[in-house]
Amino acid sequence: MRNKVLVTGGTGYIGSHTVVELQNSGCEVVIADNLSNSKIEVLDGIEAITGIRPLFEKVDLSCAKECTEFFTKHTGINAIIHFAASKAVGESVVKPLLYYRNNLNSLMNILEAMKEFNVPNLVFSSSCTVYGQPDKLPVTEATPRKEAESPYGNTKTICEDIIRDTTKANPELKGIALRYFNPIGAHPSTKIGELPLGVPGNLIPFLTQTVAGMRAELSVFGNDYNTPDGSCIRDYINVVDLAKAHVVAINRLIEEKQKSNYEFFNIGTGKGVSVLELIESFERATGEKVPHKIVGRRAGDIEQIYADTTFSNKELGWKSEKSLDETLLSAWNWQVALNK
Ligand code: UD1
């Protein structure tokens, strides 16, 4: 029997790329999304790539009633990937209750529904933000989590704990948290990619919009950090590689390969890249110049973080494959396609 996977937030950036990989691997997908930060047209892109239009339901999972109605209507789901969440770090500082209400309630409603409707498997979209600024780099899964820098980050830490405690109390439920580093790039088909609404807060959409002439120049936030070139270091992972990690995690749950009911993994490349190195890589890969200037540090930014992927590579049998140049070229090709 085909596996039926619910993807919450499936019209979002990472969600849509994951739906493509799930469908390519033979899964039946149903998307639940409230379209608060995505567009319904994303379904056209998914269909153009895979030939299959996933089932879609517009639903706010932070509302218990809507969540129950969803699971009553859509039966036979055997795994869930939970992406749907608010994710703007800065906004979360200004509106913490919005973030706690949305991100925590939706997860708790889903866990209640998993019990009620006998859905045993959950993959959760977590973040390297749970590590804060680690004392030692690279970070392994044994690296202690630190107090979050933002309410957004704190929701990821709390959600991980909610899943840990709930799977412990309900052994029929199983969970995997994937701690993403910095997902970037787009599907090589240019049919789906990141669709920021308004002025992008993240580096790559701001950079590609700048090169496309939509913004005057990119601000590099700080060159006085304790790093080789003074700019911040991150672990930039290709979004398709990241999407594939979800398929592996789903199979691990369904095939009961877990070592314990709740597991968590670092999903990155293992390579730290500075903002200035990234600009250089973009220029090399695309042949385009990136107009940029150095400005002051951005409040709340950590200096550097990158993953040790030894454990996830070995345990999951998954590895990021695409080079940074290739990934940046995909981000640029997506921007070009969007502007057409
Ligand atoms: C952060 C979170 C991540 C979260 C993401 C969502 C951490 C470690 N990471 O990523 O979990 O999912 O926000 O928004 O907390 N930069 C510039 N100029 C710009 C934009 C960014 O120089 O215009 C720099 C930043 O200073 C940073 C890097 O680019 O060094 C990446 O920034 P960004 O894309 O915003 O992601 P993070 O802040 O790393």
Question: Would you write up a description of this structure?
Answer:
By secondary structure, this protein is an alpha/beta fold. The protein folds into 2 domains: 4-184 and 237-267, 3-Layer(aba) Sandwich (Rossmann fold); 203-234 and 270-339, UDP-galactose 4-epimerase, domain 1. Helix content is 40%, strand content 17%. The chain is built from 11 helices and 13 strands. The chain has helices at residues 13-24, 42-50, 64-73, 89-94, 96-116, 151-169, 203-211, 239-254, 275-286, 310-316, 324-339, and strands at 4-8, 28-33, 55-58, 79-82, 121-127, 174-180, 182-184, 218-221, 233-234, 236-238, 262-267, 273-274, 292-295. The chain has a 7-stranded parallel beta sheet, with helices on both faces. A two-stranded parallel sheet has the order 7-10. Strand 1, helix 1 and strand 2 (28-33) form a beta-alpha-beta unit. The longest helix is centred in the N-terminal third of the chain and has 21 residues, at 96-116. The mean pLDDT is 97. The protein binds uridine-diphosphate-N-acetylglucosamine. Residues 87, 89, 127-129, 153, 182, 201-203, 206, 218-221, 232, 234, 275, 298, 301-302, 305 line the site of uridine-diphosphate-N-acetylglucosamine. Uridine-diphosphate-N-acetylglucosamine binds at residues 87, 89, 127-129, 153, 182, 201-203, 206, 218-221, 232, 234, 275, 298, 301-302, 305. Pathway: Carbohydrate metabolism; galactose metabolism. It is an enzyme of class 5 (isomerase).
